[in-house]
Structures are given as structure tokens and as C-alpha cells.
């Protein structure tokens, strides 16, 4: 879903966050049409115990428009997951929480300085919302983007471990940085600020995994 209130340095979907590009990269669709498209794969969901995942951009920014679709999914026993950065007023999410089975939440950084440098926004709302969701015993799958020496360092992965340790989470996953989005920046003539940054090494990913394990957090890697 198009639109996002963050500007992550490593974003590989610039066409989904920059309004100047929406005329060329997005389409408008009514809730009924979207639900019809979702239902086309219902047999597939049932056979593989799957469901529908809403991503973006930041889908929660369109929570009002999503309500009807999510409600219909719930009524038809279609599992709903939402990928989110959880950085917005909690009221946006609260209005549709009852329809969501799984929240896939990005934990980009815990240090506000690092978070703000990488996204252009404070992480105060993220911290508050994450705690609320965990205290409400929601099903949460945490994804940690690993962009070495950009959002992640030894110190920062310790901070993430300390933050996540108290919470009961369904899954914690490391998402290694990649360069697959660069051609899009070139296509749309947008400056890409991480041109010289390389994907994390196996050793760096293992370091993150080992540090998080010190906090009792078992991680997987994409």
C-alpha cells in the first residue's frame, strides 16, 4: 500500500513512499475490488494454512480505508498479517486491531539518535506502540533490518536485545541489507545515499544472532 511517514535510507520501495511517483507506480482500488482479489486465492490460503499480508509503504496510515477489507477477511476466516513500522499515533492502529491476526513489526533501532538518522523521524511512537502491543499479548513477529554501521552496530544490537528481552514474541528475524532497490532509484532519478554500503557479512549476521541470544532471543535470518 502506498504512502509512508518514514524515509529509511535503505528503502527498496521508493515508488511506494514518494507521492511524486504515485501517478506512475500505484493504482486506486475500492475495498470491494480488493477483497475480491484476495478471495481469488482463498483456496490457496486454506491448503497452505496461509493468508493475506498487507505491506507498503505503511499500510496503517490507510487504516480507515482498510477497515472494510479487514472486517470481510475476518468474517471469511482469512488470516490477516500487517507489516508495519509502528511509528504513528496508536489510535490509527487501535481502530483495526481486532481484525489483525499477526503484526510484522520493523525494529530499525532503539537509540533515538540512530533511528532518526536512518528514518528522518523520532522512534518515541514506535517504542510506546510496541510496548502497548506486547502488553496486550498481540501476535508479533519482529524484523530487524541489518545495515552494518548505518542502523546496526555492536552497541545498537545490544540495545535491541535489552529492549526485546522482556516481551513474548512469535518470531525475531534478521533482514540483511541488499542493493536490489538501487535500479529503482536510478529509474526515477532519485539520489541513493547508501550507494557505497555493502550487505552484511555472514560473520556480522552471526554476531547479531549471538548477541541477541545473550538476551534469550532466538533469531532466524531471511
Q: What is the element layout, followed by pairings?
A:
Blueprint: H1 22-25, H2 31-39, H3 42-48, E1 51-54, H4 63-75, E2 79-84, H5 90-94, E3 102-106, H6 112-119, H7 124-135, E4 140-146, H8 154-164, E5 171-176, H9 182-187, H10 202-213, E6 219-221
Parallel strand pairs: 1-2, 2-3, 3-4, 4-5, 5-6
Helix pairs in contact: 2-4, 8-10
Could you explain the architecture of this structure?
The chain is α/β, with parallel strands linked by helices and 222 residues long. The chain has helices at residues 22-25, 31-39, 42-48, 63-75, 90-94, 112-119, 124-135, 154-164, 182-187, 202-213; strands spanning 51-54, 79-84, 102-106, 140-146, 171-176, 219-221. A six-stranded parallel β-sheet has the order 1-2-3-4-5-6. The model has no long low-confidence stretch (mean pLDDT 93).
| Gyration radius over CA | 18 Å
SS field, number of helical segments? 10
Oligomeric state of the chains in view: single chain
Order of helices and strands: HHHEHEHEHHEHEHHE
Globally, the shape reads: globular
Percentage beta strand: 5-15%
CATH fold group: TIM Barrel
Average pLDDT taken over every residue: 93
Distance between the termini: 22 Å
Structural classification:
alpha/beta
What is the topology, as strand order, of the major beta sheet?
A: 1-2-3-4-5-6
* Count of individual beta strands: 6
Name the CATH homologous superfamily: Aldolase class I
Q: How would you sum up the major sheet?
A: 6 strands, parallel
Spans of at least 5 consecutive residues with low confidence:
none
| CATH architecture annotation | Alpha-Beta Barrel
Amino acid at each position: 500500500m502506498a504512502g509512508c511517514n518514514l524515509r529509511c535510507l535503505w528503502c527498496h520501495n521508493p515508488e511506494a513512499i514518494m507521492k511524486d511517483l504515485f501517478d506512475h507506480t500505484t493504482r486506486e482500488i475500492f475495498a470491494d475490488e480488493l477483497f475480491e482479489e484476495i478471495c481469488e486465492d482463498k483456496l490457496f490460503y486454506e491448503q497452505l494454512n496461509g493468508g493475506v499480508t498487507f505491506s507498503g509503504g505503511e499500510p496503517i496510515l490507510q487504516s480507515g480505508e482498510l477497515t472494510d477489507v479487514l472486517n470481510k477477511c475476518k468474517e471469511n476466516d482469512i488470516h490477516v498479517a500487517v507489516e508495519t513500522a509502528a511509528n504513528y499515533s496508536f489510535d490509527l492502529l487501535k481502530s483495526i486491531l481486532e481484525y489483525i491476526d499477526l503484526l510484522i513489526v520493523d525494529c530499525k533501532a532503539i537509540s533515538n539518535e540512530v533511528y532518526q538518522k536512518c528514518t528522518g523521524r523520532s522512534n518515541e511512537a514506535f517504542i510506546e506502540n510496541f510496548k502497548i502491543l506486547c502488553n496486550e499479548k498481540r501476535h508479533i513477529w519482529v524484523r530487524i533490518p541489518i545495515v552494518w554501521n548505518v542502523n546496526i552496530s555492536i552497541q545498537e544490537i545490544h540495545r535491541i536485545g535489552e529492549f526485546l528481552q522482556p516481551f513474548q514474541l512469535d518470531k525475531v528475524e534478521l533482514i540483511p541489507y541488499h542493493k536490489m532497490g538501487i535500479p529503482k532509484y536510478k529509474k526515477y532519478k532519485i539520489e541513493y545515499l547508501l550507494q557505497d554500503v555493502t550487505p552484511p557479512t555472514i560473520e556480522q549476521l552471526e554476531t547479531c544472532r549471538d548477541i541477541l541470544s545473550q538476551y534469550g532471543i532466538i533469531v532466524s535470518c531471511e
